[in-house]
## 1
Amino acid sequence: MLLLNPGGPGGSGLTLSALLVAQGLPADVTDSYDLIGMDTRGIGHSDPVSCGFTPEGGYFANIPPYAVDDAAVVERAAVAQRAAEQCAANDDDGHLRHLTTANMARDLDRIRAALGEEKASFLGYSYGSALGAAFASMFPERSDRIVLDSNIGDTHLDRDGMRRYAQGMEEAFPAFATWAAQHHDTYGLGRTPDEVRATYDETAATLDEQPAQGVDGAAFRALVFGGLFHERQYPWTAQLWQSLREGTAPPALPGGDPDLVAAENGLSVFLAVTCNDVEWPEDVQAYRDAVAEDRERFPLYGAAAANITPCAFWPHAPAEEPVAIDDDGPTDVLLVQNRFDPPTPHRGGELLREAFGDRARLVSVEASGHGAYVLGGNTCAAEVVTRYLVEGAMPEDDTTCPAS
């Protein structure tokens, strides 16, 4: 069987198997495995948790807003504290403290046992890479073929992992800027990549001073960040950008309006797992310093990714140490990583490769976007990963796949 996780933490995996098949998961894989998607604890049908967040309540995103100055960090700290207190007030049954990556990995092993399998294989994306790394480290004798795609760099998302979002945007933005320059006659964002970046800076600064159509500079930066996740989102992102500059009607959201109940549930799980897994700094000054540093290092998005979160005020201390990577075991962890990935830059794959040592191999894909195997449509990556899943043929060395 092949256990699946789409990321998050907070993403529902019940339909991931159908999505992967629709996106072109090779028949060799579906013929070789039972595909097992699930709602991990706290999500969807798995006794969902809720902090009671609403879009109007000031906290409804798992990445903090871009802080235009130091005062904005202090202002955001008050919002983050109220969010943490709201989670505690809504936790009537005491479930939130039990949402951790280690516990979710234990749940995976119970699913394996319930299905009567001696071992389980795993395919996880984004945060799913942390969950899969934890499963392979906690249960090396019961893990079979492990594929971790779009790696966050450890068995948990910590402050460094969150700050790498800004590094990822810096590395992924040039591909969008090149595309936008090629389509300047349609969108008017600049005739060269440098001009497109200058237009981004100008638009964000203008919206900081005067929001347009309910979108301020922080929201604009967040929308552009999300628009870099896949090239198929570039036209929508460029059209949004154009509408904000010209005062025209913005494009409809891709996929329609979000399911707010599912979104709130996912956000609550994201917070609980992220805050429970590891200690976060409690001193607001630490975040003020980080925002100032990352605004210079990563000007596109650093002042957002380094901004303060409710984890600084979380009511529960971690119940146990984060899962340590176990490099003592068979060579059974295949890491797949786009070179230019917005939320999980290539560095995340490198960090897991270093931690797993000879247990792992790294497949680097010279492409932009979030998700390489199947979701990215890269032929080379598809061949390498499918061969491993179906035949158990791990590459002898780390390898690079050209863009395709």
## 2
Amino acid sequence: MSALTAAGLFGKLTSGPSQPVPLTYKGHVVLDGEKTRMRDYVPSVPERDLQLPVVLLLGTSMSAGKTTTAKVIVRLLEEAGLGVIGAKLAGAGRYQDILGMLDAGADHIFDFVDAGCPSSAVPEEVYQGTLNDLLSRMADTDADLVVAEVGASPLEPYNGAMVVDKLWPNVKCTVLSATDPYSVSGMIDAFGHSPDLVTGLATSTKAGVELVEKVSGIKALNVMDRDSLPKLKSILEDALDL
């Protein structure tokens, strides 16, 4: 096995650019003859439908800038006086991502670990139950809306596509964080959805912003540039009818 994240996620590495810390499996915690699992210790909640509007953060890959964008959006919505849920709904358990949303002003934070799943890279039938449980927990809050990040890309094996399909009726604004301008068009072609806005590494320079807009025809913003924040705020207000 390998240490797959610094947060303590262990598993079998099948591919990747890094060489993680190797681990040797010695055994499993067993109670009454049964292996214990995280979800065995998650209190059950009544099933609820999530009816809150959603700002959905997608990426062309990991480390494309989704969490950075999410934090900026959370801050703008909090400054507008709204109660915000910050959520990461697919990926590998990494608490710092949703803690960043909390630091940005989110009133509540959630990820799949709250439903007893250390990673969403599990069989679809397993994650379907996890996702329903997680959304029920999110629905049981006093928030006004959700800023939801889908880890990695929805085309990668983290069940991101399932998350998008489940949330789509609630999605009011879709933001794609891209690693390069050309990946935007590739993502649109492969996934079939056009985002309302492009952010991320591809927009870190003025030339990058212009190329994204030229190649894809979609508005692009560098959210780390304070001069772009009024435009981002306007996009969110229009999408959410604020």
